[in-house]
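Recall that a protein's primary structure is simply its ordered list of amino acids. Everything else, from secondary elements to tertiary packing, is in principle encoded there. The following example makes that idea concrete.
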Amino acid sequence: MKVIYSIFLALLFQSVSAQQLNFTVTINSDRANTQERDVFNNMKTSFEQFLNGRNWIEDEFRPEEKIKGNLLITINEMPSVGLFNATVQIQTVRPVYGSNFESLVFNFADRNWTFEYVEAQPLEFNQFTFLDNISSLLAFYAYIAIGLDYDSFSPRSGDPFFEIANNIVSNAQKSPRPGWSQNPSDRRNRYWLANDLYGSQVMVSIRDAYYLYHRQGLDLLTSKPEEAYRNILEALKLVGQASSAQPNSILTITFMDAKSDEVSKILKQASAEVKAEAVDILLKVDPNNARKYNDILKG
């Protein structure tokens, strides 16, 4: 009887997990001026354990429901032992219902991260205070990833997670480390990302676009394609509205960085009317990818 009960418990804990993230961390240390390469293997392991081994929210996820992501850390400089200057590329994906396709939801380049790392020192996080620049940055993007995932399934359901991310920014401003401050000359940072997702009424329309694009768009492509294309177009209209009201916002740029390739391929199968309206919006919002969007009309 005890054996049967133990098997039951094992199956139960395999089917539901407290952790919500499944991130792969990659560290490019080619520029680091050090012969001690093991530190980067330990760093990778430590950062992955911090992200994937923690219960970030109360909701329980099945293994297949965990939010998949990649964290690419490029070490640009190692001014002294244990001190690193780096850039970080964060990407998360979301499955599309009725297909084997995964949609890129978040694609963000954090260009200014300075941190101290001591091997074997455990990483701790407290959302109410700043402890260090590693746990704060990793936790910040963990909550951004969770918030955007929730927004893609239900309108504005990422609110509580963006609030925590915003609190992390506020706490980290007590630190002299770059990337956390309200710097008008550097709007591609954590402060402005949190501000757009949590504090800006103008950017709310882009959050609504995440839901329309994914849940009412991509998820319906196989069952209701005409409705799906129309909803994707409506999502792009919302992005266009935000872009017109606040040009060059980091959230608009981030949305298009994630979606430019995908939308240019998907819309080739849409009606001529949807294509024409969508391309008109895309050329205004993201002119740097004009060639890509003009190709939609040839599809």
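Residues 1-15 have pLDDT under 50 and may be disordered. The two ends are 63 Å apart (CA to CA).
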